[in-house]
Amino acid sequence: MKRHSDLPLPARRHVPGSGSTPDRGALEAAKADPGLRFAYGVDLFNHGYFWEAHEVWEAVWLASPPNSGRRQGLRALIQMANGGLKLAMGKPRALARLAGEVQGLAGDADLTAEGIDMAALADAFAGFAAAVLQRGRAIDRPEAQTGFPLITVSAHQPMSGAAS
User: Which of 54, 135, 149, 162 could hold 81 in an S-S bridge, CB 3.0 to 4.6 Å?
Assistant: First the structure.
């Protein structure tokens, strides 16, 4: 799978309630470098580090202009990370609720500078959530499942953690 940053992935993923602890080393490095934050969040999400992706993207969200399309897009990505985390925690109904929220946010989201079609991504995420509910069981590693919406970034688009 294509990586978007050079930072190493954490040694373990943190899932609240599982007894795990976050591997904060790379997270803190990414949060300290505005140019790495967004890209590293994409890497974390695509590799199933949902709690970690949320942490890194929250730093980007906080640095984005209030009420902007970019901020709405980041909120949608953060909620996607929350959905993946809820599924890893054995809560598929929470995934479905968050997928609905992501679809609602997608209309005002603008991540075109990052090369992301948020509407298409939100639809794919909602489709994945519906399929999970239909199966009726939790999934430990959602990112490894067929149909999980990995985030793809257009190659010609710059990715930045700084506010645009």
Answer: 54
